[in-house]
Amino acid sequence: MDDEVKRSSPATRRPYRAPRRAQQAAATRRAILAAARTEFVRHGYGPCTVAQIADTAGVSVDTVYTSVGRKPALLRELVETSLSGEDRAVPADQRPYVREVKAATQAADKLTIYATALPTIHQRMAPIFEVLSQAASVDRDCAALWDEISQRRARNMLELAGELRATGELRADLSDAEVADIIWSLNAVEYYLLLVKGRGWSPARYGSWLADAWVRLLLA
């Protein structure tokens, strides 16, 4: 009898329910972000409503607000997850390709690893980038996000320039700041869109060309 009571008591069941609730919450969040991506790309940031996102996700508007937040928060999460390739934001130095870049000892290898990773990132990021570009012109929070992402990328490229300098293979007539600016400009989603969307290049061709260009431009 005592064993039956223990098995059915709330205290013994709670550890089993908590992971299930967490999994359900994570699944709901993924569904909301997927719906937000669809609706933002379909309608544009301004015309898109939270109600449309909620309807596509199959949840209530209140659930969208409590799971992720309002439209600026939804767009921020889409930017971060597009960059990380996961369902959450991941700091740059914890991403697999960044670890590969840091582990490489030759400058050409570092540049090639990074350039090869970019097409996959930009395929995820390009549609959201275009939404963010539009949103930054009409929403103060989105404009701040645009600036934040740009400055973060610039800092990361300056760190990469320092790593390249440490190999002893960079051109002596280029400063680390100039190296960072060159990489920063060519790794931008805008440049990817010019060649892939505008000129019909394949993402793979863009990546291989970018690696070759960086090696030619930056290394002695």
Automatic annotation (TrEMBL):
Residues 1-24 are annotated as: Disordered. Gene3D superfamilies: Homeodomain-like (1.10.10.60), Tetracycline Repressor, domain 2 (1.10.357.10). Residues 26-86 form the HTH tetR-type domain. PROSITE patterns: HTH_TETR_2 (PS50977). InterPro entries: Homeodomain-like_sf, HTH-type_TetR-like_transc_reg, HTH_TetR, Tet_transcr_reg_TetR-rel_C_sf. It comes from the Bacteria. The keyword Oxidoreductase does not apply. Keywords: DNA-binding, Transcription, Transcription regulation. Residues 49-68 bind DNA. PANTHER family: HTH-TYPE TRANSCRIPTIONAL REGULATOR BETI (PTHR30055:SF234), HTH-TYPE TRANSCRIPTIONAL REGULATOR RUTR (PTHR30055). This is AcrR family transcriptional regulator. It comes from Microlunatus panaciterrae.
